Amino acid sequence: MEILFYRYNNICEPDLIQTFTTFGITVCTEEMEMADKSITPKQCASKITEWLMTHSFAFVFSINFFPAISYTCDHFQVPYVCWSVDSPVPELFSNALKNEWNRVFLFDQAQYQFFHPVNPDRIFYLPLATNVKRWEAAILNMTEEDYAKYGADISFVGSLYTEKCRYDRLLHAQNKLENPTAKKAAIPNASDGPACRSISQYTQGFISGLIEAQLKIHGYNFISETLSDHVIREIADADPDFYHGSDTYMDTDRYLTAHQYVGIKLAAVERERTLNRLAEHFNVALYTRSNPAPLPKIHCMGPALTLTEMPMIFHASKINLNITMRPIETGLSLRIWDVLGCAGFLITNYQAEIPQYFEVGRELETYESMEELEQKVQYYLSHEEERIEIAVNGYEKVARLHTYEVRVAEMIRVLSTLTNSRPN
Fold it and tell me: Could you give the CA distance from residue 64 to residue 345 in angstroms, rounded to a whole number?
């Protein structure tokens, strides 16, 4: 069996390529977008067409959904298989999602339930996974110096989302228009960009209140249903780069405002507050490319190399903290699987899907409030044997049931049940 893997340098791609190869599948890769992020849909479709004209692929695969690939595969009647690993993914609103030759796998059940009715026979739920063998190779070679270097009471690896916050960029641009002589606000990588319309004090207050309310609730996201049409319209009008797809099957403004603007702002606020609060009482190591200036008591270690340093951090740290960004409404982020795959002890915010896969208190720990998080951090820092036992249990669970091999096997099983799939 031969497949075409369209790459754009997503972190999951090497693990999927390795797994497909392990299954005896020959993988051809198209990598033009790895070097050039300005590739247009037309260029993408043209390149996929070249491949399909010269090869007989069982299917074309990508991480996340590319409408141009979907339309091209539909034309050639070749299955297009993709696995969504992010949220939000605006491209899922494309009419291409309705195509007959799609096989779309979504990792978040809330995301799946939202999009499944669009193409119910071609959209499936598939949680994320981890590459235990890759992590084992890094961990087994750790030295005493590695344990000393990467060990910490609490470690957090990830973005603070300040540099990704579109809502903050709008406010920054508005502030420059209203105060042209003022110094540039401390928003990392903020670009002036095209002129933005102003956001009213009412809308700013509404969003601040909405964020404060959502911060108090774990396990249920009510941002989208709470946003008023007026607030949505004001934010959409304020950003010249607001996503308005010309090929969509429904209005996307509410969904994108809730997830790309308010949701990302919420993630930035939540991460800053959580880390600052923990740092008041505990030693916290932060590995990030974000600007750590708002976190004065955190030990900022800079970025961590994903394939070499990150597994050692997860394994050597007493406690690994995960804070799931709220646009992932019910699903388990990749960080959860990877920490457990490195035999690391994990405390994560509660997500509705966690009980489907793990036993809380035996394979990982969760929290639903800052008070609960502080209490559990204090407890597990002083109960080493229990902490190690939970880490081992979590590792054994993912090594047995939640590897990429398990997920690809399930993916292929689903593909084999579809009537117009290519034969193996």
Answer: 29
Residues 47 and 72 sit within 8 Å (Cβ to Cβ): no
On whether the CB atoms of residues 5 and 17 are closer than 8 A, the answer is yes
| Three-state secondary structure string covering 86-117 | CCCCHHHHEHHHHCCCEEEEECCHHHHHHHHH
Residue 226 belongs to what domain range?
167-178+191-263
Burial 392-419 (b: 16+ CB within 10 A, else e): ebbbebbbeebbbbebbeebbeebeeee
The answer on 325 and 201 residing in a single domain is no
- pLDDT tens per residue, range 92-109: 999 999 999 999 999 999
Residue 185 lies in a domain: no
| Residue 398 φ/ψ, nearest 5 degrees | -70, -35
Distance from first CA to last CA of the chain, Å, rounded? 6
User: Among 126, 132, 19, which residue's Cα sits nearest to residue 395?
Assistant: 132
Q: What is the mean pLDDT of the chain?
A: 93
Q: How far apart are CA 208 and CA 218, in angstroms?
A: 17
| Three-state secondary structure call for residue 43 | helix
Residue 422 resides in a domain: no
| 196 and 258 co-located in one domain | yes
Judge contact between 119 and 82, C-beta under 8 A. Answer: no
- Shared domain check, 283 and 369: yes
3-state helix, strand, coil in the chain (%, to 5): 50, 15, 40
Average pLDDT over every residue of 179-192: 50
Task: Kindly state whether residues 149 and 288 are assigned to the same domain.
Answer: yes
> Which residues are CB-contacts of 327 (< 8 A; sequence separation ≥ 6)?
87, 88, 258, 259, 260, 263, 264, 267
* Alpha-carbon gap, residue 353 to 341, rounded angstroms: 18
pLDDT tens track for 289-344:
999 999 999 999 999 999 999 999 999 999 999 999 999 999 999 999 999 999 99
Q: How far apart are CA 62 and CA 81, in angstroms?
A: 7
In a domain, 335, yes or no: yes
Q: Is the pLDDT of residue 186 over 60?
A: no
Q: Centre a 10 Å sphere on the Cβ of residue 157 and count the other Cβ atoms it contains.
A: 23
Radius of gyration of the chain (CA): 22
CA-to-CA separations, 167 to 170, 205, 216, 290, 380, in angstroms, rounded: 5, 13, 21, 17, 37
pLDDT tens figures, 246-261:
899 999 999 999 999 9
Mutual angle of helices 132-139 and 334-341, in 10-degree steps = 50
